[in-house]
Write a structure and sequence with these properties.
alpha/beta, eight-stranded mixed sheet, Rossmann fold, about 20% strand, about 35% helix, globular
């Protein structure tokens, strides 16, 4: 998720994200609500509610992949984790608390500024950069784990984004993605209901035509030597007012994949 910079010194000293995967209209859209990142009752309420579910799924699979105990205090210690489209740091912070060396990148400098400030407030050391994946690839960086949560539906060129993101994963490393499925159910619930009836997210946040079916993402990843290992739906129960992992992939889903080479 992406925003515009409010820090002129950062604009003068930081490399600017290249335009290949960055959608400028998405940057502008999220810039308007960037002050809401850490408001649990605000525009990003749904992400706050999903975060414990996403964190547990990621933690458990990383621990299993790297032969760690997921229940120890810092099971991700020593691992380099990249959070692409980190926004205000909602996922980067729990990854850091779990022991990972976290790099968070976003094409919007306002989000990065907010993420840095909040991490400092929380006493966390997270490497936040106003970067696109292209810039990291140009720097020759590589990570044990790459996260792309709720990002693929917002990029300008999905094929290029996945190709570059996959190249940032070390051989035998892990890749996590979450997004919205392109189904009639997601059109009704994630687009119409969430944006215009329940007002969970601002109207216009999502373009249903850019939602990706799990099979489509898997097909993009396979030629990149990245193979899906697990796939779960993230399902909202209105009766319990909670989110849970399920086999229902009709709306939100999260994917765990490994890079084989």
């Amino acid at each position: 998720m992406t925003q515009q910079s409010c820090d002129p010194t950062e604009q003068n000293t930081s490399p600017q994200p290249t335009s290949g995967t960055v959608a400028k209209d998405e940057i502008a859209r999220f810039a308007k609500i960037s002050d809401q990142w850490w408001n649990t009752e605000g525009k990003f309420r749904a992400l706050h509610e999903l975060n414990p579910l996403r964190t547990k799924f990621i933690r458990d699979h990383i621990a299993r992949h790297f032969k760690r105990d997921p229940l120890e205090e810092r099971p991700l210690r020593g691992l380099r984790v990249l959070d692409i489209g980190c926004g205000g740091g909602l996922l980067a912070e729990p990854m850091s608390r779990l022991g990972a060396h976290v790099t968070g990148i976003d094409a919007g400098a306002t989000s990065i500024s907010i993420a840095r400030s909040h991490a400092t407030l929380m006493g966390l050391q997270i490497d936040y950069r106003h970067y696109s994946p292209e810039l990291l690839a140009n720097d020759g960086e590589i990570f044990d784990v790459v996260l792309a949560m709720e990002v693929v539906e917002h990029v300008a060129d999905l094929s290029e984004f996945l190709s570059i993101s996959s190249a940032l994963i070390q051989p035998k490393g892990a890749f996590f993605l979450s997004t919205l499925n392109r189904t009639l159910k997601s059109l009704a619930l994630a687009k119409l209901a969430a944006e215009y009836i329940l007002r969970w997210v601002p109207a216009g946040t999502h373009d249903w035509r850019k939602f990706q079916k799990p099979s489509e993402l898997a097909a993009y990843l396979r030629p990149l030597d990245v193979h899906v290992q697990d796939l779960k739906g993230m399902t909202y129960s209105p009766m319990a007012d909670t989110w849970c992992l399920s086999d229902d992939l009709g709306v939100n889903y999260i994917m765990y994949a490994n890079r084989s080479l």
